[in-house]
Design brief:
With 385 residues, the protein is α/β, with parallel strands linked by helices. It has helices at residues 17-29, 71-77, 115-130, 158-170, 188-201, 217-220, 226-233, 251-255, 263-270, 274-335, 337-342, and strands spanning 7-9, 12-14, 34-44, 51-57, 64-70, 86-96, 101-111, 148-153, 176-180, 205-212, 238-243, 258-259, 347-350, 353-354, 366-370, 375-379. Helix content is 41%, strand content 25%. Helix 4 (158-170) packs parallel to helix 9 and helix 5 runs parallel beside helix 7 (226-233).
Amino acid sequence: MPKVEHLVYGDRKVFTVSAFNRGIGMHLGRLPAVWVEGEVTELRRNDAWANVFVTLKDPKTGATLGVTIGRRTYDRLALGLEEGESVHVAGRAELYELRGQLGLRATTIERIGLGGHLVALEQLKRKLAAEGLFAAERKRRLPRVPRAIGILTGADAAARGDLVATIGARFPAARVVVCETRVQGKGAAEAIVAALAALTAHPEVDVVVLARGGGSFEDLLPFSDEAVVRAVAASRVAVVSAVGHEQDTPLCDLAADARAATPTAAGALVVPDLTDLDAVLASTRRRLELAVHAQLERSRGRLTRQGERLRAAPRLLLERRRAALDHTGARLQALSPLATLGRGYAIVRADAEAIRSAAAVHVGEPVEIQLAAGSLGATVDEVLP
């Protein structure tokens, strides 16, 4: 190892600042690699930089430590760290000689506590969203009056009691099918999937409520399990998620057809209020009565008008026929030979036949001359060509 040079002033050995920092850095370099736990308070990364800089803080004392890690190494870890996350960092102590600043040269970083779960959930959320499991257009409308309501809950769950009480108070005739199962801990996800399948297979269940009271983040993890979320999305009937408190958002909330902040709110979603329903039915009945009355009045008016038209029809027909007859009579009158005679003309007949040509009669032959008023007898004295 190279030796750190010093200056001599009489009997005094003096190190420059650079030499002192270099010497401390050399001694630090002999220390073994260590794991350091802390909370991320600052993270700086730039594609143009060779390193990523992280500041760790001890949440109990507020002490801080600067961490440096190669950018390529950090990117390969694909952590996507956020401020406030707790991490374990492996590396060696180092001293930034120019400023005499102690730091940690990291070789890897790992999340601890809930951090890993949060990242995994976020990745799963993005994956399922990309598949369309959370799409609004996929969600179904809840039945207005279900034949039966399925309730999936844990044993001795207060949420079950609140939900059943709310449903009974709002709609006493509602039928409830309860399926108790394991809702937290090992095997809970598989149990929830099986219970949901059993409820949706019930021939009269039209909607299922997932009811689970509040709990820790770990307690609610089964309701974010991929198998559970897919089962909710693929359910034969509509699903209402009432899991945890209002601030909790397990992934089953996103896949369900509706989300309720509390079991009481879930009860209000799955059944109508009987009082409100009675009011709606009464209002509908009144509207039907008014509609029928209005229709009868319209029909009565239509029949009255038709009756009047029927009574007037013969008279109108007779008038039309009389007018037509008068018109025909006038035409016949205009075409009648009598009308011609009235204008001063006469009809000459021989042997009762009208004479149309002078050649048709002979001198001395008797003829009859018909006038407009009366007739004359005559003898042909002369026939002119």
